[in-house]
Every structure is written in C-alpha cells, then in structure tokens.
Amino acid sequence: MTLVGLAGILVGLGLLIWFAFRGWSVLILAPLAASIAALFSREPLLAHWTQTFMGSAAGFLAQFFPLFLLGALFGKLMEDSGSVAAIAAFMTQKLGARRAVLAVVLAGAIVTYGGVSLFVAFFVLAPMAQELFRAADIPRRLMPATIVLGTSTFTMSALPGTPSIQNAIPMPFFGTTPFAAPGLGILASLIMLGFGLWWLNRVETKARTIGEGFGDGSPMAPDRLATDETLRERATTAREFDPAEIAHGKVTDTPPSVVLAALPLAVVIVVNLAMSLFILPALDTRYLADVRWGETSLAGVGGVWAVVTALACAIVAALAVSHRRLPALRATMDAGANASVLPAMSVASLVGFGAVVAAMPAFAMVRDAVLGVGGGPLVSLAVATNVLAALTGSASGGLTIALDALGATYLARAAEIGLNPALLHRVAVIGAGTLDSLPHNGAVVTLLAVCGSTHRDSYRDIVMVGIIGALLALAAVILIGSSVGSF
Questions:
Q1: Are 457 and 464 spatial neighbours (Cβ–Cβ below 8 Å)?
Q2: pLDDT tens for each residue of 409-467
Q3: Is the Cβ–Cβ distance between 177 and 271 less than 8 Å?
Q4: Rounded to the nearest 5°, which phi and psi values hold at 19?
Q5: Do 71 and 265 form a contact (C-beta atoms < 8 A)?
Q6: Is 359:401 a contact under the CB 8 Å cutoff?
Q7: For tag attachment on the chain, is the N or C end more exposed, with fewer CB atoms within 10 Å?
Q8: Across 87-101, 205-219, 321-335, 422-436, least confident range
Q9: Does residue 241 contact residue 120 with C-beta atoms inside 8 Å?
Q10: In which element (H, E) is residue 233 found?
C-alpha cells in the first residue's frame, strides 16, 4: 500500500509539472494533483481538499499575502513614476557601453534589493541592456544572463535584509529576521557576483575574438503579456508579480532625479534594518501569546512585520516624492494591487499540494530519504529545497513546501547539535534559488521573451550565472557554516 501511495505522489507531481509547463493554471492543477495523490493512498478526497489543501493554502496567504500586495504595489509605483528607469539611466551614464555588463548587473541589483518586483525590473532593464549591448557590440544572447545575475541571484537569496518573498518565507519557521547570517550572506553574494561577472566577461571576450556582434532579434512588448496566457501562467508561479499588469497604469514622461528615485529604495533598507534589529526587539510583545493573536511570538511574526513595515514606508516615500509624476495614480495603484493576487494564489496552491502530499502515509518514505542524506541537516535541507524548487519551477513554492513538511524537524535537529537557526534560514533560501532556474521556470521563459532570445541561444549562460554560481555559494555557506557556525 505504501508503494502505491508513493506512486500516487509521483503521478500527481508529474501531472502538475507537465501541465504547468504547458501553461495550464496551477489553481486547477494543484488541487487535482493533490486529489490524485490522496486517491492512490485511499485517503478521503474532500477532506483533504477542504481541510488539508485549503487549510495550508490559507495559512500561507495569511502569513505572506501582505508581502505580495505591498511588494507588487511598490514595484508598480516605482515603474510608473519613472524611478526604476531613472536609476537604470544613471548607471548607463556613469558606466557607459564600455562596462555594459556591469552597468546592467548593478542597476538590477540596486532596484531588486530595494524591493522592486522582478518583472518590473525585467521590462525596464531589457531596453537599457539592448541599447548598451548594441553600442558595445556585445551579443544579444548575453542579455538574459546579465539581467539574471543582477536581479535573481544574490539580491534574491543571499544579501542580508533583502525584502524578497523567498528571504521572508523561512522567518516564521525558524524565528529569524531578514538579516539572518549576514556575514555568510555577504560571502555568498560575493561568490555569486564574482563568478557571474567572470563568466560573462569570459564569454564576451570570446565573442569578440571570433567576431560575434550584437546580432538580430526583437524584444517582447509589455502589452503582449496581457494576451499571452501560457507565458503568464508560467510566470505567476515563479515570482510575486503578475506580468500582465505591466501594461496597465501609465508611465510618466518626466522621470525624477536619481536621488529622488533612489530614496524609496533606501527607505526599504533602512526601515527593514531598524525594525529587525532595534525597534521590534525593544517592544513588549507578550500579548502575542494570547489566543486572540494566534498564540504566537515575536519570533514567529517579527520578520514579516519588519519587511511589511519597510515596504509600507517606501510606498509612502514614493508617493511623497513622485505623486505629481504619476499621470494615472488610481490605475497604477489598482494595477499594483491586482498584480499581487494571481502569484500569491498560485504559490499558495503549490503549498496546498505540498501539504496534502506531506499528509500521505507514503510520504514517510520520502521524508526518511531526505533526512537520511549524508552531511548533516544543512546538506539535507539544501537538497530538499533544491529538489522541490526544481520540480515546482518556483523558489517560493518549493521552499514553503519543504519547510511546511520538514521545517520543525530541521529546527529540532539544529537544536540538538547547537546549530544556529539563522544558518538554516540562509541555506534554505540560497538552496531554493538555485535549481528553480531550470528551463521551465516562468521567470526564465518570460525574460527570454522580453529580451528577444531563446533557450538555445541564452540558457547556457543563465545556467552558469544563475545556477552554478549559486551552487558554489551554497557549498561555501554549508562548509563554512558547518565549521565555524553562523555569523
């Protein structure tokens, strides 16, 4: 019976992956796949759908929807106010075509570390990269990997304090803050950035040697995403912004100065730091133990509170400095809010599927196999998050499924050997941000379309900067963390 149940889990997962890759909605696929797993195990279908699946999905939304909402709203305000474009233009002016790769990487890193949603960054950075790469005669095929390095690697998973949803997910499980293991996070960031720049410069030099220039191709217009439903469905399971909303609202014709444009980004970083390390720890939060507040503690909610407060303050700052530059404020606000809903529901559905799978009797075999991986809890955790992020094509979905099923076990094992939960946090986030960039990942597919490139032309370089560099950083964090602990 156990083997039949395991077969049901694999069949459900296989169907979920296959049809999601073909553009079917995860909102339909996830409960269907969960029902298949329950059917094979002869478990009650309706109870698992309404109690297990929906209970877990609702719990995810209750914890993290404020981050999806405020993050998407902030990103849309920054786009329509011209702030992201102003920062990108500043980097272009200062570094120029001679340092085109570095200019695109740094511009992407600045805006995403400051809280701007990934797809917003894509549609601003792609035209910038196209101009720079054409002027420098760098092959177009390197544009996607260059943007990935700046937006989807160290600023997503490693740099301390990043407001990404991936960095927020482990906080309630481990009682950590966005600045968990800051020293190791900075080290991992340097490895990802250094390796990625080395690889891109190497490929650029080789292209010049053989006379390969910018080439041909045309990028995707933002409004095409509103009608390309297959691309949209893939994208919304991967990141926290519905790309169809990029075309809504109205972008200003008079962008702000770079100082005003960067001010809201600085607010995110400063407020996040102050809330995490000074303000929240100084508050009397004993009231949270009351049943009225869910019988929780500051450790369970403080990290999310810090990021939510930082994004809310940044939205106020963006409105304060750029409200006159927003030609359609209500449309912009509506688009930002709407952009958060489908990604949040899609990831919540993946989490619901994971909860049903974890409730199956056969899952004990999977759990024992994962926990039995040699190298201790850090290696086991890295394997679990890598595999689940790869299978789901979603770093946030894979990370939440892994921690929902095994987070308490890893925390208990860490306590037994004196391992700092901050180290678990950093390993989990970096692990989820590696193999999630496989070919079926929605962000990869979207970026290739935006840049007018293909998997055949550009995916190898995405692998090198987005997967290999992250795996090297993950290995370094595990080795050093196992030897000297978290710092």
A1: no
A2: 999 999 999 999 999 999 999 999 988 887 777 788 888 888 888 889 999 999 999 99
A3: no
A4: -75, -30
A5: no
A6: no
A7: N
A8: 205-219
A9: yes
A10: helix 229-238
Cα pseudo-dihedral 193, 379, 113, 147, rounded to 10? 50
Closest CA to 400 of 74, 5, 61, 162: 61
The structure tokens 């963390």 sit at: 481
Amino acid at 487: F
CA distance 328 to 359: 48
Give me the residue label for tokens 């926290």: 240
DSSP conformational letter for 41: T
Give me the phi and psi of 229, to 5 degrees please: -70, -35
State residue 218's pLDDT score.
Answer: 58
Selection from 268, 370, 337, 355 nearest residue 309 by Cα = 268
Residue 481's nearest CA partner among 64, 88, 233, 184 is 184
Q: Tell me the pLDDT tens digit for each residue of 290-306.
A: 999 999 999 999 999 99
Q: Are 136 and 200 in contact (CB under 8 A)?
A: no
Average pLDDT of the chain to the nearest whole number: 91
* Cα distance between residue 430 and residue 441, in whole Å: 16
Residues 334 and 279: their CA atoms lie apart, in Å, by 31
**Residues comprising the chain, all counted:** 487
Give pTM, 2 decimals: 0.91
**Secondary element (H or E) of residue 422:** helix 421-432
Per-residue pLDDT tens over the stretch 80-104: 999 999 999 999 889 888 899 999 9
Cα–Cα distance for residue pair 91/132, rounded to 1 Å: 11
Span between the terminal Cα atoms of the chain, in Å? 46
CA distance 275 to 246: 31
| CA separation for the pair 25, 205 (Å, rounded) | 42
Burial of 105 from C-beta contacts in 10 A (0-12 / 13-18 / 19+): buried
